[in-house]
Specification:
Layout lengths: L9 H10 L7 H13 L1 H18 L1 E2 L6 E2 L5 H4 L4 E8 L2 H10 L4 E5 L17 H8 L6 E4 L5 H14 L5 E4 L15 H9 L2 E2 L1
Parallel strand pairs: 3-4, 3-5, 5-6
Antiparallel strand pairs: 1-2, 6-7
Helix pairs in contact: 1-2, 2-3, 5-8
């Protein structure tokens, strides 16, 4: 039985609580989203439930680069037309999507799964750094692009990676013009990302 103080059914409150955990949605936004879903069950809620179920069942992390796809290796890693000599290192899968939208990069990607952060307790062993070193050690790799956000943690991670990659005798570069200090890659427009990739500089 619902308590007298409750304003909605437990099922609705559970929906709101889960939506509120999505980045960018606070309690108020979650309530508005839940209301729209409930008002438009056939157009929104049921298709969303199906899409969530299918994504949970089929989407997985690529064993090679760490991107998300329904196949493993992912579509990008399986594409023979992409340049094996270039590896672009990003923090999260969303950064891959952002760079692909910009259409400026035709090499391979490597998703770290985050950035180093003393505050959040993220250590090198918590990221896919060992796999990156392994991939960059291949004879055909000539450049690794550190496409990390211009935040303190992002630049700390880039510096750490540059030191780890230096013994491999390959070119190490970073994004340059167009990426503001404190900027997140996934929030930048396509033109800015394109310019940043084209004008990358040695690390």
């Amino acid at each position: 039985m619902r308590s007298k103080s409750a304003t909605a059914a437990p099922e609705i409150e559970a929906l709101i609580s889960l939506l509120a955990k999505v980045p960018g949605l606070g309690p108020r936004s979650a309530r508005r989203a839940a209301l729209q879903l409930l008002k438009k069950k056939d157009q929104l809620m049921i298709p969303l439930a199906v899409a969530l179920s299918e994504a949970a069942e089929k989407v997985r992390a690529c064993c090679n680069c760490g991107a998300l796809d329904t196949q493993d290796p992912c579509v990008l890693c399986s594409n023979p037309e992409r340049d094996d000599k270039l590896i672009c290192v990003v923090a999260e899968v969303g950064d891959v999507w952002a760079l692909e939208r910009a259409g400026a990069f035709k090499g391979r990607y490597h998703v770290l799964g985050g950035v180093l952060s003393a505050l959040d307790g993220v250590r090198p062993e918590d990221l896919r750094i060992a796999r990156l070193i392994e991939r960059a050690s291949r004879a055909d790799v000539r450049e690794v692009i550190l496409a990390l956000s211009a935040t303190v943690d992002g630049q700390t991670t880039a510096h750490y990676l540059a030191e780890r990659l230096q013994p491999l005798n390959i070119t190490i570069s970073r994004l340059s013009h167009g990426v503001p200090v404190g900027g997140e890659l996934d929030l930048l427009d396509d033109g800015t990302l394109f310019a940043a990739l084209q004008s990358r500089r040695p690390s």
